[in-house]
Design brief:
The protein has helices spanning about 1-20, 65-75, 90-95, 110-120, 125-135, 140-150, 175-185, 190-195, 215, 260-275, 370-380, and strands spanning about 35-40, 50, 85-90, 110, 200, 205-210, 220-230, 235-240, 245-255, 275-280, 285-295, 300-305, 310-315, 320-325, 330, 340-345, 350-360. The strands form five sheets. It has a six-stranded mixed beta sheet with strand order 14-16-17-12-11-15, with no helix packed on it. It has about 375 residues and is an alpha+beta fold. The chain has two domains: about 35-275, 3-Layer(aba) Sandwich (Beta-lactamase), CATH 3.40.710; about 280-380, Peptidoglycan synthesis regulatory factor (PBP3), Domain 2 (Sandwich).
Length: about 375
């Protein structure tokens, strides 16, 4: 038993010396927070930079609406609904209390306006209206939220409603909310909605102010959602990007008013002081040329599909190297964006991350007479 423990400790020390972010808890002494539960992750990889009781099941209050927006974004991406759809409020939607835009039965807004009411004004009534528009009933929509939670492999999450008012069996965790945040970042729409500071409804007669004050107070903030009830206390799931480094922080169960902002900023300050994003190649940078067989042109330029970089501890970014793997040739037709290789980033012999290398342009297949002509020119030089 002692020998096994020594091996584990040696492995932990070795990994720590590499300076790579590991999915392990950070010592509480490095960051102290009044939050009952908290987490900070690297958005690009999901690696945990800091956590405190991050898997504890707690009521999320209106941070629930992060999943509400995520399911709506899914439905829009699938073509089930459009932002221009007209959403009509039902009596069921209009009878909710808490944060709301005071919908009247039969009142109509576009789906985009309803989503803004949720993202900016934390409107409970808009949540039900959107749920009914997308899934037919609020209950069916909540079912979709739980299915999405399962698809994301969230172990400590279960939803009873789409708006976050207290209910038995309605809970999530800081870790699970961080995973939802990563999923939300795949939809530019969600960040666009949650970064709006203020919005005018009803021709300017009803002003919405974003409940996430980090949008004003903390540079680089562009999402996501706050929450508060007596049961949940003050909660916030947010994201900040600075100098190429995007972090996601979640705090839950903060006792003091505005404490969820103060605690989040404290955690972000620690994260940005300790870590940095080192870029090795920007998106769409040329990385080589691949020969094209039977195409109207003989080769195609290959570029990075997205930026190649890694989050590292500051001062520990040495011994990182790049390996490029390209297909020697490809047969036409070639689609723009088709994967033709990959570029890999290593620290010593450990793979840190990789990015696809893709065709910059499409290459059509040459017709038979064109292929014969190319062959003759190659043989006879004319």
């Amino acid at each position: 038993m002692r020998k096994g423990l020594m091996i584990v400790l040696a492995l932990v020390l070795a990994l720590g010396n590499l300076g790579v972010i590991q999915a392990t808890p950070v010592l509480a002494a490095e960051v102290e927070t009044a939050a009952e539960s908290a987490i900070l992750i690297d958005a690009a990889t999901g690696n945990i930079l800091y956590e405190k009781e991050s898997h504890k099941e707690l009521p999320p209050a209106s941070v629930t609406k992060l999943m509400t927006l995520l399911v709506a974004a899914d439905a829009i991406a699938q073509g089930r609904v459009k932002l221009t759809d007209k959403v009509t409020a039902s009596e069921n939607a209009c009878k909710l209390g808490g944060s709301q835009i005071y919908l009247e039965p039969g009142e109509t807004f576009s789906l985009e306006e309803m989503l803004l009411a949720i993202a900016v004004g934390s409107a409970n009534d808009a949540c039900v209206a959107v749920a009914e528009h997308i899934s037919g009933t609020h209950e069916a929509y909540v079912e979709e939220m739980n299915k999405k939670a399962q698809a994301l492999d969230l172990k400590n999450t279960h939803f009873v409603n789409a708006y976050g008012l207290p209910a038995e069996g309605h809970y999530t965790s800081a870790y699970d909310l961080a995973v939802m945040g990563r999923a939300a970042l795949e939809y530019p729409l969600i960040r666009k909605l949650t970064s709006v500071k203020e919005y005018d409804l009803r021709d300017g007669k009803f002003k919405l102010w974003n409940t996430n004050k980090l949008l004003w107070w903390y540079n680089g903030t562009d999402g996501f959602k706050t929450g508060w009830t007596n049961e949940a206390k003050y909660c916030l799931a947010s994201t900040v990007e600075r100098d190429g480094l995007r972090l996601i922080a979640v705090v839950m169960g903060v006792p003091e008013p505005r404490g969820h902002f103060a605690e989040s900023m404290k955690i972000y300050n620690w994260g940005f002081a300790k870590y940095a994003f080192k870029q090795f190649a920007p998106a769409h940078q040329k990385q080589g040329v691949v020969k094209v067989l039977k195409g109207v042109q003989d080769d195609v330029t290959v570029t990075t599909a997205k930026p190649l970089g890694v989050t590292v501890e500051k001062g520990k970014d040495k011994n990182i190297w790049v390996e490029t793997k390209l297909n020697p040739e490809v047969t036409a037709p070639v689609q723009a964006g088709q994967k033709l290789g990959e570029i890999l980033l290593y620290r010593e012999d450990q793979l840190l991350t990789q990015v696809d290398l893709v065709a910059q342009d499409a290459v059509e297949r040459a017709k038979l007479h064109q292929q014969i002509g190319k062959t003759l020119r190659g043989v006879f030089g004319f």
